[in-house]
Amino acid sequence: MLVAYKVLSALTVLAGAGGMGLSFLSMACADLPNIVAGGAGFVAGAILVGAGLVALALFSLVPAGPARTSIPEELLQIEK
Q1: How many structural domains compose the chain?
Q2: Alpha-carbon dihedral of residues 17, 53, 59, 61, nearest 10 degrees?
Q3: Is residue 69 in some structural domain?
Q4: What range defines the domain where residue 18 resides?
Q5: Cα gap 72→70, rounded to integer Å
Q6: What is the pLDDT of residues 4-46, one digit of tens each?
C-alpha cells in the first residue's frame, strides 16, 4: 500500500510540473485575462509540486519492511 502512495505523490509532482509548463502558453498571450489565467495555473501547479514533494518526503520516512530497532538483541532480553 505504501508503494501506491509514493506513486500517487510522484504523479502529483508530475501533474503540477506539467500544469506549470502549460500555464506558460497562456501567459505568452497579449490579452490580460489570459495572462492572469496563466498565472493562476502556475500558482496551482506550484502548490501541487510542493504538496507532492512534502508527501514524498513524509513517505520516505516510513520503513517499508518490518519495524527495526537500534537496540542490540541481547539488551532486549529480559532475565527471569
Answers
A1: 1
A2: 150
A3: no
A4: 2-63
A5: 6
A6: 888 999 999 999 999 999 998 888 888 999 999 999 999 999 9
Distance CA 32, CA 46 (A): 21
> What is d(CA 37, CA 4) in angstroms, rounded to the nearest whole number?
32
Rounded Cα distance, 70 and 31, in Å: 61
Per-residue HEC secondary structure of the chain comes to CHHHHHHHHHHHHHHHHHHHHHHHHHHCCCCHHHHHHHHHHHHHHHHHHHHHHHHHHHHHCCCCCCCCCCCCHHHHCCCC
Predicted TM-score of the model (pTM): 0.72
